[in-house]
Structure formats: C-alpha cells, structure tokens
Amino acid sequence: MSKVYFASARAMKWKYDDSMPGKLERLLKEFNLSNYFEPKEWVAVKTHFGSEGAHRIVRPIFLRKVVDALKSITAKPFVTDTVRIKGLDYLEVANQNGINHLSVGAPVILADGLYGNDSIIVKAGEIISEIAVASVIHDVPGMVVCSHVKGHIQAGYAGAIKNIAMGGVSSKHRECGWKCGRGAMHTVGEGKLIWHKERCELCYQCEEICPLETIKFENELFAYKEEDCWRCGRCTRVCPSGALSLPGDDERFMRSLAESAMTVLSTFKKGKVIYINFLTEIQPECDCMPMADVPVIQDQGILISDDIVAIEQASVDMLLKAPPLPQSASEEKNIVKGDDIFSKLSEKPYLIQIEESERLGLGRREYELIEI
Q1: What is the pTM of this model?
Q2: What is the C-alpha to C-alpha distance for residues 52 and 287, in angstroms, rounded to an integer?
Q3: If you count Cβ atoms within 10 Å of the first and of the last residue's Cβ in the chain, which end, N or C, has fewer?
C-alpha cells in the first residue's frame, strides 16, 4: 500500500510551523528527499506558470520551499513548464504571476524551448503511438511534480496526471506537428476546427483567446491557419453559442492522459519522481485560461507521495468529502453537499484517467494517509 503524506490547510495556532509554508517544510523533511535524489543531481520542479489573468497557481512561496528542500540535500533544482503560449510571452506570464529566479530561488526555464518544439519522440501506447516529450523533462534525471488541483473543462479533474501528461509534452513536434504533441490528446482524426456559421454571434472571443493568433475573421467569415494550430481547444471553450467544435471523445481523452503520463514517466528511472498536490484555490477551470474563477471548494491542504495514482485518488477522495462553496460555480449548478462537484461542473468521467493509470502500472489506488 502506497503512503500519502498530508498537511491540512487549517492553521490552528499562532505559529509559523502551523502555516502552510511551515507545514510544507515539515512534509518535505518527513518525506526525506535524499531517498530519491543524489547530491548535485539536476532535479526539475515541474509546475504550471498560469496565464495572464489566471493567478490561482501553485504559489511561488511553495515552489521556493520545494527548491530550498532540494538544495538542502545539495541537489540542483530548476523550475520548469512547457510552452502554452508563445515562449517569451509565457516567461513574462510566469514573472507576472511571481515565478522567477529571485522568488523561487532557482532558474526558471521552458522545458520545450522558446518555440515549444524542442522535444524528443518517445513510443507511447494503444491510443497515441508516439508522443513528443519535452527535451528537458526527457533528459533530466529527477523531477518533483508540483500540481495545482482544480477542475478542467475537458479532463474534469486536473492534478498530477494532467500536469505531466499535457505539461510534460510539447504542443507540437518539428516534424510530426500536433499529431505527436499534446494536441493528439485534445482531438481525434484530422482534428480540424468546425465552424457552424449559423450559430456564430461574431463576438470574436475565439480570435482573442487563440495563443498563436491563428484565428482571423475576414468579412465576417471564420478562418484559421490549420498548419499552425496546436489543437488546444481554447477557442471552442470560450464560444458562447457553440459555433466552434473540435472532434473529440471523453473516454479516449482520459485514457490518453494516462498513456501520456506513462510515456513521460518512462524517461525516468524508478524512484526518481515524486508528486506534491496542492489542494488550494480549487477553481473550476484550468490555469491555462485567461481568467480564474472563485474557488468551488475550500482549501484542503497539501499531499505528497511517490505514487501518482495514490496521490490522485487521495486528492479526489478529499474533494468528494468537501462541501461546495457558496457564491461560486457550484452554487450556479445547484450542487449540494455530497455531490461529486467536479463531475457536476464538467460532466466528464474524470475518474477514468486514474483508473487507467492504475491499469497501466503507474501506481495503486489503495493508499495509507499519514497526516502531520
């Protein structure tokens, strides 16, 4: 049975040790990072930099605590993510959200380069035959995956699996393009955007949100550069009238997340990756959108484990027990205590990604929770 260590978000004493940064320090000490990483070994601290307007990410203070803990065992950490918008813009977004060398105490880099295509093809599995793993993540010997637990319009639930499945690979590869990048998870077949002219309200939100500026309207007609498109699906998400669609399949997407996570982890030796899930500011959207809604569930705390399946199951179990927050998307959906909040919000079978990860041998759903 895998062990999952937990520190509650509640602060019951007027002491630093009872604060969340203090508890994270204790968690990291209890977990004993020296069991996983060698002196002078390079270690990636994988997180999500957020977006302009999406500020509910893993806070820089927590990343700093992880970096400091790694430095205390003389490892050489750096903080990283893969490109989700143009690379230079994404580094500036990270800086705006407080993630920089000064704040986290380590270099902040893009794992797949400024252009988002610095990646290495790795054989995957049944759904995706091969996938472009970001070169830095492919090559680095160790990794700490710091995930902001939240909702997700397509995954339903986003934690550690989604963090490395989509954040550990490039949007596209130099040769095979989006079909071996994360776009292969987002869509099926040729993945062409479909514009339903009769539904379009000409609000131009799709044009505004496109991270690569590939969408244009000319004479009130939709057009996009198909060869440049990453198939991220943001345009379909923001369309208020359903005028844009991208062919996809929920079950296939969940299974492909697990398959991609397996592929990314296959580039590491056993025992070289650990996971920290932050159940804080639990909003209904992904951190890649240009906004952040109010939390739908109260902060629960921080979990750490070396089993990705166990930590995801433990995170979900905590969310299932938590009541919905008023004045949030939960209230708008008439969600009440006892409901599966993320399932009700997204109507996606999100548990498939965890079940499939266990089937693929990434870990076990059975766990022992150890609270400090």
Answers
A1: 0.94
A2: 10
A3: N
